[in-house]
Hints:
Layout: H1 3-6, E1 14-17, H2 26-36, E2 40-45, H3 51-61, E3 64-68, H4 74-86, E4 91-96, H5 115-136, E5 140-150, H6 162-182, E6 189-195, H7 201-204, H8 209-219, H9 228-239, E7 250-253
Parallel strand pairs: 1-2, 1-4, 2-3, 4-5, 5-6, 6-7
Helix pairs in contact: 2-9, 4-5, 5-6
The protein binds ligand 0WD.
Amino acid sequence: MTATESAHLLAGKxxxxxxxxNRWSIATAIARAYRAHGASLVLTYEGxxxxxxxxxxxxxLGQSVVAQCDVSADxxxxxxxxxLSESGMRLNALVHSIAFARKEELSGKYxxxxxxxxxxxxxxxxxxxxxxCRELAPLFSDAASVVALTYLGSVRAVPNYNIMGVAKAxxxxxxxxxxxxxxxxxxxxxxxxxxxPIKTASARAVGGFTSILSDVAAKSPLRRNAxxxxxxxxxxxxxxxxxxxxxxxxxxxxxxxxxxxIT
Length: 263
Ligand code: 0WD
């Protein structure tokens, strides 16, 4: 492989990237990195509120199809499948960069989580990966790569992260089960990136988020926070053939914070 080829790790691939809400979204950084590495994109938006931002990004990046998909609605996912299959699209990569929980359940005690809030967070943030993979699997190319975004709150009790931590635990477990299922269907791989805290709209909904950022900057081995571009570079690797024997894995992109014990 020449130096020029190695700079375009996703040349000839098509990647669906969900979860672009605005320019700070992790999905925005991933979409940019994927295009920079030569991929064509399908950018999905949840609803009319986020459509203008996604349209703008698609126009800026070029080679991007825009499609609506609210992952909490089976019909919306089926419509996405219909739209893509009508145009004969094959997907080499799928990025799940979506999460939602009620703001009131992202502060205070986990003990106070309501039944409805629990179901909503798990539905949008974890089940959606299963639904997307099942519906879109017929469009996956051989050796396609699925990447989901998760956070350390899945395996540690992080103050205020609460129900979202439980949803991320379900998401990470789903990554393993989906990897087991889809690996037997054309060698499709499923992995997660556990990103360190990054200032986005979703992150700001978590109580005390700023103190989480400063804790990582003070205590992580690299003495800094990971940024969206760090996550995007790892997402390029996971979508590329360089990671062809990696599946069912959770890759931490958090400046090493997760390895620390007493700090
Ligand atoms: O510190 C962080 N920002 C971290 C984020 C650390 C570790 C992981 N993550 C994860 C999040 O949990 C999420 O899974 O990264 C993913 C992307 O989050 P983000 O980029 O931090 O946040 P944001 O820009 O808000 O994007 C999440 C988007 C939603 O944004 P808004 O702000 O509109 O709620 O998820 C999308 C929506 O665009 N989303 C949906 N998309 C389709 N259907 C739905 C839905 N029902 N609900 C939310």
